[in-house]
Amino acid sequence: MRVDDLIDDVLALLGENPGFCLPDGGDGTGAGTLRRRIRVEVERCAARSVAETPRRFLTGWRKLSSERVAKGPDGRMTVGLPEDYLMLHSLRLSDWERDATEALDHSHWLRRFQESRWHGLRGTAQRPLVFHGIDGEGYRCLELFPASEDSLVAEGWYMPAPAMGEDGGIEIPPAAYRKCLDYIVETLSM
Questions:
Q1: What SS3 string covers the chain?
Q2: Residues of the chain above pLDDT 70, percent
C-alpha cells in the first residue's frame, strides 16, 4: 500500500479534507505540515498495530533464515534474527515434538532456570522454550531450549516490522490496517 493513501485515510479520520492539506513535499519543503507529522508516526504505529493484532488474522509471515545458527554446550541453540524482525509466529527444531509459538523476554524468570538442576523448569521437546537474546557478535537472536548437537532448525516463521520503502509503500497486514490508523489518530490527538 502507498503511504500517501494511508495518510489520506488518517486525514479523513481527523476530519480534514485530504485534498486541501498541504503536500508533504518529501524534500523537506513541507516539514511543518500535518502530512509530514503523520508520516513520522506511520512506522511506529504500524508496528504496534501488527504486534497487537491476533496472529491468526495476520498475513505476510516470512521464513526465518537459519544462516546464523550457533550451538552451545549448555543445551542451547541461538538463531540470529533478521533486521526487520518484529515477532515470532512459530519455530521448531528437528528433535522437538511441537512448535514454539512464543518468544519470551530474556529477563523472563524461566530463563535463569534453563541451566539449573531442576529439570521441571527447563525446556523439553514436549515444551520447548524460546527467549530473545543477544548472540556473541552483538546481534539480536533467539535462544532455543533444549538443543542437542544434532538439532537442526526444521521450520521457523516471523513477522517483519512494517517499514516505508523507497518506492513510497509500506506493507501492513489488512487485519492491522484500521488499528494502525486509529493509533496514528490517537497519537496526533494527544
A1: CEHHHHHHHHHHHCCCCHHHCCCCCCCCCCCCCHHHHHHHHHHHHHHHHHHCCCHHHCCCCEECCCCCEEECCCCCEEEECCCCEEEEEEEEECCCCCCECCEECCCCCCHHHCCCCCHHHCCCCCCCEEEEEECCCCCEEEEEECCCCCCCEEEEEEEECCCCCCCCECCCCHHHHHHHHHHHHHHHHC
A2: 93
